[in-house]
Specification:
Elements: H1 2-23, E1 31-35, H2 41-49, E2 54-57, H3 60-70, E3 75-78, H4 87-90, E4 96-100, H5 103-115, E5 120-125, H6 142-149, E6 155-161, H7 174-190, E7 199-201, H8 208-213, E8 218-221, H9 223-226
Helix pairs in contact: 2-3
The chain binds pyridoxal-5'-phosphate.
Function: Pyridoxal 5'-phosphate (PLP)-binding protein, which is involved in PLP homeostasis.
Pfam families: Ala_racemase_N
Family: Belongs to the pyridoxal phosphate-binding protein YggS/PROSC family.
Length: 230
């Protein structure tokens, strides 16, 4: 079990290093979030002990026991759709929110963070593919959105996040990831936030190498890295 996990981690690491090499990027520019939503508390603990200290989950109900067991041993990333009435559960526990996609959510995060004196690093989730089954802000609304965010002092925009459609050929996801990078660059040119935004949270098990080639700074890896149980 543990040996298998160790081997998976090594295999993914080699693939990340090779993608960085192809893209002329330094390995230190890409961070890995281990997505543990498909695995048990025990496997999550093993993953953390093997050095995967950024953990991603998308439902508070599911992650709660894991968070309670390992809160201080990892940095926690909320990567899934966040309902406004669940904001109270995640503020103060998750270091990063990857799914900021609407003003009502921003306002609630701001309120809860401010009342606790916290600053929350967030990624704005864009729906680059335009699929109506995907969450995310339509990209053409990004600049108006960040103008409003700029007035929320407890939110700090780390970058942009997207999910590519599932493709059997990972290469087909490239325009989505390139599109996210271009929106980030445009965001910086427009300067509405008053600071530079560097982060690109993109790439999952099936497409992370392409995402890295296109500039990902955080890849969110579940199945390929920690496996899928039950
Ligand atoms: C589940 C999930 C992942 C990881 O999925 P895998 O394909 O198993 O790597 C990444 N990002 C988000 C937002 C997810 O919900």
């Amino acid at each position: 079990m543990e040996e298998q996990l160790r081997e998976r981690i090594q295999a993914v690491e080699a693939r990340i290093a090779a993608a960085c090499e192809r893209a002329g990027r330094d390995r230190s520019e890409v961070q890995v979030i281990a997505v543990t939503k498909y695995v048990s508390l025990e496997t999550t603990g093993k993953a953390i002990r093997l050095g995967l200290n950024h953990i991603g989950e998308n439902r508070w109900q599911d992650v709660q026991p894991k968070w309670e067991a390992y809160a201080d041993e990892a940095t926690w990333h909320f990567i899934g759709h966040l309902q406004t009435n669940k904001v109270k559960d995640v503020v103060g526990k998750f270091a990063y929110i990857h799914s900021l996609d609407r003003l009502s959510l921003a306002a609630e995060l701001e309120k809860k963070a401010a009342s606790r004196g916290l600053t929350i690093p967030c990624f704005i989730q864009l729906n680059i593919s335009g699929e109506d089954t995907k969450y995310g802000l339509p990209p053409e609304q990004l600049f108006d959105f960040v103008k409003r965010i700029a007035a929320m002092p407890s939110l700090r925009i780390e970058g942009l996040m997207t999910m590519a459609p599932y493709e059997t050929d990972a290469e087909a996801t490239r325009p989505i990831f390139r599109g996210l990078r271009e929106w980030r660059d445009r965001l910086n040119e427009e300067g509405h936030l008053g600071y530079e935004v560097k982060g690109l949270s993109m790439g999952m098990s099936g497409d992370f190498e392409v995402a890295i080639e296109e500039g990902a700074t955080w890849v969110r890896l579940g199945t390929v890295l920690v496996g899928k149980e039950s």
